[in-house]
Amino acid sequence: MSTFSIHTLGCGSAKPTMRHQPSSTVIDYRGNLFMIDCGEGAQLAFQRQRLKFSRLRHVFLTHLHGDHVLGLPGMISTLGLGGAGGEMTIHTFEDGAKILKEIFGFFARDLPFKLDFNVIRPEEAVILETDSYRVRTIPLKHRVPTVGYVFEEKSKPRHIVRDMVDFHNVPFSMINRIKAGEDFIKEDGTVIPNRILTANPSPSLSYAHISDTVYMPDLAEKIGPVNLLFHETTYLDSHEAEAKKRYHSTARQAAMVARDAGADSLLTGHYSSRYKSDEDFRKEALDIFPNVILNREGLLTRLD
Amino acid sequence: MSTFSIHTLGCGSAKPTMRHQPSSTVIDYRGNLFMIDCGEGAQLAFQRQRLKFSRLRHVFLTHLHGDHVLGLPGMISTLGLGGAGGEMTIHTFEDGAKILKEIFGFFARDLPFKLDFNVIRPEEAVILETDSYRVRTIPLKHRVPTVGYVFEEKSKPRHIVRDMVDFHNVPFSMINRIKAGEDFIKEDGTVIPNRILTANPSPSLSYAHISDTVYMPDLAEKIGPVNLLFHETTYLDSHEAEAKKRYHSTARQAAMVARDAGADSLLTGHYSSRYKSDEDFRKEALDIFPNVILNREGLLTRLD
């Protein structure tokens, strides 16, 4: 059972096609669902992947273009029918919160759950943090204010080595301090080094979601060495000039960001409707970066 | 080639399912497309049926519930990408026009075509009329203001009987008056009765679209003897009490309206997501009315 996985609901761009839906991605982190963008049809794709609305607590919008947002009114009003209770937070810019409140006020009145808005800005900031993970924003360069999101687990406590802890009679009251890395000092002053009592924790996992943006050479450093990087690949290198003009990236540029960030793997997407085959995006990215995952609707990508 | 046909894009109700999409219907009248309601996903269903956006000139909204409206922002913004030019009119109530203008102003700016709103009211009225057809509204009884639409061809001019017109040397200048039903009076005063010079025109066709409403005994008379009646069948008779409570109709009640209106055929739809099979709607309606067409996504129903 994966504790951190990515569901692709839609990886097309603005113009819907028979092959691709508009943008929407769901992160499943230990059973909590985080949606990034909600293009038209996302609520159906969500159900098709057997995800539970009752576990969806956060929706993060990258920017306010229709192909990333217009599935939200329908999904929220469907949630309203469910009588689910609970609460949900939508993370978006101030003007997005304003128009969405107007739309929900009209088409999704009297919701049986609490709907909050967290107003974000196009800047580097930590916008959500718990004991186990943190979500931060990175400003991107698109035709309208846009942010990417980085989801990262915090460093985990060390694993207790049961046998050694018992052998050295470590009192239970000390366990959390041992987990935190402290040595154990016996009453006779003997020091039992932490490395004997504990083992390394499982590594902290991270996912970055970068859509939509023109190629930014300085982006890689802001992202860091994530385990999985989704970076939009709207165009192929043959349309690099248009990509730049439309403030989008090519598969080659996405691969350069993955390489420079030190990511383990690159996930493609936001394909322009002009291309008949997606395989070319993978080919182009592979020239620059070795671990390329070709995105498609319904894809489940595990980080562990 | 049919001159008057009905494309079903979505015939589900509020809760989207794997089997049914939310409401949307397209009327193809001599190559002109009229959309009635535009639930989420309608723009894709429209393309799946190989319909041309360039021929879509009117969108008629029955009421302002999300499952009848929330596909419109996405469709309009997609049309905006097409650079189609031309013009489109959305027929809706005043508050619908207001919220849609706000949404389009945000998500579908700088459209390359002219988008007009025709503000209608929940009353009996002719809202659109040309030389060949007329569209009228009928007020329904739902939880919010709602109208049904009736599309009817006007009576057509009589067909000229070429041989007789030539035989009696009817001058060309007279032809339109003969088509309109006038007799032909020769210079010597001989009267050639119109019935000899013309044949009956093909019958005028009509379609009524009734969604959503509680059963209204007086509705049939307002609709009249249409060729095809779509009447919502959200529930089965076993849930008649709930249908009434939710201001919806059962398949049995829809069949009663079709029978009392003198319709040729009844088209079902707006099925509640609670039912696993649609066949029961047909069975129930057939007990009351003989010509029942079981609606489904992708269905094409010809009136001629």
The helix tally of chain A amounts to: 11
Q: What Rg of chain A do the Cα atoms give? A: 22 Å
* Percent of sequence in beta strands of chain A: 25-35%
Query: What is the share of helical residues of chain A?
Result: 25-40%
Regarding quaternary structure, what we see is homodimer
- Which structural class do the helices and strands of chain A define? alpha/beta
Regions of chain A with pLDDT < 50 over 5+ consecutive residues? none
Q: Kindly, what is the distance between the CA atoms of the first and last residues of chain A, rounded to a whole number of angstroms?
A: 9 Å
Roughly what is the average pLDDT of chain A, rounded to an integer? 95
Biggest beta sheet summary of chain A:
7 strands, mixed
Most extensive interface, chain pair and sizes: A-B, 30 and 30 residues
Number of strands of chain A: 18
**Which word captures the global form of chain A?**
globular
Strand order of the largest sheet of chain A: 6-5-4-3-2-1-18
Order of helices and strands of chain A: EEEHEHHEHEEEEEHHEEHEEHEHHEHEE
Brief descriptors of the model:
304 residues; homodimer; 7-stranded mixed beta sheet
Q: What does the model show?
A:
The structure is a homodimer of 304-residue chains. With 304 residues, chain A is of the alpha/beta class. In chain A, 27% of the residues lie in helices and 27% in strands. The first copy, chain A, is built from eleven helices and 18 strands. Chain A has helices at residues 42-48, 66-69, 72-82, 94-107, 162-167, 175-179, 194-197, 219-223, 240-245, 251-261, 279-286, and strands at 4-10, 24-29, 32-38, 56-60, 87-92, 114-119, 125-129, 133-140, 146-153, 159-160, 184-185, 191-192, 198-199, 206-210, 228-231, 265-267, 292-293, 300-302. In chain A, strands 6-5-4-3-2-1-18 form a seven-stranded mixed β-sheet. A seven-stranded mixed β-sheet of chain A has the order 7-8-9-14-15-16-17. In chain A, strands 10-13 form a two-stranded antiparallel ribbon. The longest helix of chain A is centred in the first third of the chain and has 14 residues, at 94-107. The termini of chain A are close together.
